[in-house]
Each structure stands twice: as C-alpha cells, then as structure tokens.
Amino acid sequence: MIEPSVALQTALRATLISDPAVTALVQPEHIRTGRPDRFPCVIMSGGSTQYLGRASGGQHLARVNLDCHVWAVEDGADTAKAIGFAVSRAVIALADAQEGFTIDQLDQPRVIWLRDVQPELSYTHGVIEIEAVIRWRD
Prior knowledge:
By secondary structure, the protein is α+β, with helices and mostly antiparallel strands. It has helices at 4-17, 20-23, 76-94; strands at residues 31-32, 41-55, 59-72, 102-114, 124-137.
C-alpha cells in the first residue's frame, strides 16, 4: 500500500476518468494534480492523512482528506457547477472495491464556490472536500 492520501487520490482520478458524465465535461488529461492551466479542469490537492491505528487482523486505519478543485471559464458558474455535480456523483462510486485498500466511510462534507478574484477572466472555482476512512493490510 502506498501512502493513504496518494492511494485515495489515485483511486479518485481513476474513478473520474472512467465516468462518462465527468469526461463529457472535462478531458481526462485535465483531471490531475498540479496547477490549473487548461480549462475546464479538476485538480486534486490538499491530501492529508490522520493515522487512526490498528484494527483486527493486522489491518491499519486512516482518515484521509482530499480536495477536488473545479475550474471552468466557459459559461462561468453553470459549467463549473455541472462539473462539480458530476464529480460529486462519481465520488459515490469510489466507495466500491479498491485495489489495496477498503473504504469504510466516505463523505463529501462541503462544496464551496468561490468568487472570481479577477472577474474580467470569468473563472469559476469550486472546492469539493472529500473525507474517507480507509483500511488496509501490510
């Protein structure tokens, strides 16, 4: 098992690029980590891991937080919110079987839509917070 936040991020990207509702709005190569330089895009960042300890059968537990940043230019908020909704729906499928770990709990506690700091550029930026409790064996 790789570091838990990286494992969740990898699984999330695989889920998003295989979801037709998401890829109808965002090209798969624009779903990644890094900086928003091609639009629209989904940028995964802010991974953090809180180790929760050991469980029965030699398993480990961790709470993982990850942010999905949605960026869009065209049609402003309408496009960004459509992408955000497609991403949120796809995240639900993330709870299904993953290679190397199991997701015991999966939440999307908040979606935040931020005001454009440069209105002349017409960017819309949203942040989808994802929180998961994952379990794995050594």
